[in-house]
Specification:
The protein contains 7 helices and no strands. It is mainly α. The radius of gyration is 20 Å and the shape is globular.
Length: 176
């Protein structure tokens, strides 16, 4: 008899605790995916982080695809690729829209709750690993990418906080 009551109580508590689970699992709270605004941010990440020996590797949690690094697996007949014969690392096929979207999701999925707070301006961008590691405020195998306030840093932080000014992204891309 006691076992039946405990089972009923457990079932009740399990169901009662399943109220509003918050945002949908696949919902991303952060800068909206705007290919025109994100392309230059992605280009900075591709150049600084997306080499094949770093985040241009399929096994990395932060995975960056791009023209000069890891390419997204695509079939020859994929509508995502214009010229499949040039779709390889270093080929003439530019970073595709599908690769841009994957890069976007990869960055935001690292710390989704913190990205949401940074985007809402209720947290400083330095709470994010991607910002701390690039500034070498946290151990990073890739070393220092930029200091706070450098063009690459401003490019990334602007985007994370919803500022659509990509001027500093272009400055960063002009550096050797």
């Amino acid at each position: 008899m006691k076992t039946g009551r405990l089972s009923s109580l457990f079932l009740f508590l399990s169901v009662a605790g399943c109220g509003d689970l918050g945002p949908a699992v696949n919902e991303i709270v952060g800068p909206p995916f705007d290919p025109a605004a994100f392309r230059s941010v992605s280009a900075v990440l591709e150049r600084r982080c997306g080499t094949l020996d770093c985040h241009g590797h399929a096994a990395r949690p932060l995975r960056i695809y791009g023209q000069y690094g890891l390419r997204r697996p695509e079939e020859r007949t994929s509508p995502n690729v214009e010229n499949y014969d040039e779709y390889y690392s270093g080929g003439k096929e530019s970073t595709t829209l599908a690769e841009l979207e994957d890069n976007y999701r990869s960055v935001l999925a690292l710390e989704p709750e913190l990205v949401a707070k940074v985007y809402a301006k209720s947290a400083d961008p330095e709470v994010l690993s991607i910002v701390r590691k690039a500034r070498l405020r946290e151990k990073h195998k890739g070393g220092l990418l930029w200091n706070k306030g450098d063009p690459g840093d401003v490019c990334l932080v602007n985007w994370l906080t919803g500022n659509t000014d990509t001027t500093q992204c272009e400055v960063e891309l002009g550096h050797p």
